Amino acid sequence: MSQPQTALPSGFETLEPFVVSWAFDRAEARAGARRSSSAADRVAFFEAAKPLLAPALAYLDQKPLDQFDAKETRLMQLCLSFAHIAMAVEVLGDDEAKHAEDARHLTITRAPSEF
């Protein structure tokens, strides 16, 4: 029997449901996902990813960025998205809707993760 295909490295299977919604290669796409997501979506991703963030970063730290395979790249993208939503969940809370409205006027042209 063959193994099911996964989008992430072994050990991070609980994050699989969030790949489609949160694994983006550009900061603007991650910011857009944050702005267009519901509070429930942000909290669900935050709660699932928070305990895996340190293990994910330790896992990814084992090799240079330019040597990541597709699964590792997606895991890094989820970590970067976590950074976007952590502010929304931990700090802004109910004020995230106001922030999202204001953030629509800010265009991210290039982020440090894109160099």
Number of strands: 0
Q: Summarize the helix and strand pattern as letters.
A: HHHHH
Q: How many domains, in number, for the residues?
A: 1
Helicity, in percent? 55-70%
Choose one word for the global shape: globular
Category by helix and strand content: mainly alpha
Unreliable stretches covering 5 or more consecutive residues:
none
User: What number is the mean pLDDT?
Assistant: 81
The biggest beta sheet reads:
none
The gyration radius over C-alpha positions equals 15 Å
Distance between the termini: 42 Å
Number of helices: 5
The fraction of residues in strands falls at under 5%
Write the layout of secondary structure elements.
Layout: H1 19-22, H2 27-36, H3 39-60, H4 70-92, H5 96-103
Task: Summarize it.
The chain is an all-alpha fold and 115 residues long.
Please give a structural write-up.
The chain is mainly alpha-helical and 115 residues long. The chain has one domain (27-110). 58% of the residues lie in helices and 0% in strands. The protein has 5 helices and no strands. It has helices spanning 19-22, 27-36, 39-60, 70-92, 96-103. Helix 2 (27-36) packs across helix 4 (70-92) and helix 3 crosses helix 4 (70-92). The longest helix has 23 residues, at 70-92. The termini are far apart.
